[in-house]
Amino acid sequence: MPLAPEIAEMLAAAKAANLPPMHTMDPVEVRAANRVALIDNPIPIAAVENRHIPGPESEIPVRIYTPNGEGPFPLVMYYHGGGFVICDLDSHDSLCRSLCAKIGAVVVSVDYRLAPEAKFPAAPKDCYAATCWSVDNASDLNADSSRLCLAGDSAGGNLAAAVALMARDQGGPVARHQLLIYPVTDKNFKTESYRVNGEDYFLTTKTMEWFWDHYLQNEEQSNDPLASPLRAELSNLPSATVLTAEFDPLRDEGIAFADALADAGVEVEHKLFEGMIHGFVSMGGVSDQTEVAIDYLSERARAYLA
After folding, report:
1. Buried b (16+ CB within 10 A) or exposed e, 177-197
2. What's the CATH fold of domain 5-305?
3. Among 55, 72, 86, 279, who pairs with 82 as Cys (CB 3.0-4.6 Å)?
C-alpha cells in the first residue's frame, strides 16, 4: 500500500521546514525542541497524579492515570518511546489518557532515566523497579495486580519486553499481556525495512544509530537480551500484541519478534498498519489510523485483562 496521503503531507511539511536532523544535534537540544505542552482539553478520566517512587539509584517520576468507574481496575505499566534518549511523561500524556479511558485500567507511566546521562541498563532497571512498586502498591492505586499489562512504544516497547524478561528470570510480577507498539527489539540495521524505510519516513537509520550510540556503553551490550530482546530465550513469557507500521525502519524487527515469540510457544498477535510510519500512534489529529490503532490495542488489552 502507498504511504497514506495525510502522512505524506505531514512529511512534506516537515521537510519544507528544513529543521536540522536529530542525529546532528545534542540530546539536550533535541529534548528542548521536542518538549510538548499538555493539551487544553484532555481526555476526561477520573484522576491524574504525579508521584516520585523509589528507584534503584534515584527516585523515579511516574504519572498515574485512573479511569472513571469503580475499581479495582487492571494495571497497565507504560514505558514511553524516544530512543532511550528523549521524551517524557508529557510527550505521551495523551496516549496514556486514551489507554486509561479505553481499556478501563489504571495506567502508570514511567519517566525512566535517559541516555546518555544514564546508559544501559539504567532504563530497564528503572522500569522494572517501577513495575514492582506498582504491583506492591496496587491496592493504594485502586488496581488489581493480578491483571497486569506491560506496554510501550518504540524504545518503550523494548523496555516492556525487557521487563517481561526480568520478571520471568527474577521471579517478579506476573503480567497477563504485553502491548508492544513498533518495538525496538534488536540492534541490527541490515533488515529489509531499514533498507527501504531508512530515510524520508520520520525515523531514519542515522537517528536510530544516534540513539543506540547514546544508549549503550559498548557494542558488546547489544547482545544483552535486555537491550536486544530478539536475542533472548523467549519461552514462558506473557501473551503479546505486536503492532508495526509499513513505512517504519523498525518494521521487520517487530515482525521478527512476534514470530520468535510464537516459535517459543507464546500466544501472540501481530498487526501491520499499512501506509503508516513510525510514531503514528502518537500522532492524533494527523491520521484517523491513530484512533484505529488505539482502539485495537485497547480491545486486545481488555480481552486479556478481563
Report:
1. bbbbbbbbbbbeeebebbeeb
2. Rossmann fold (3.40.50)
3. 86
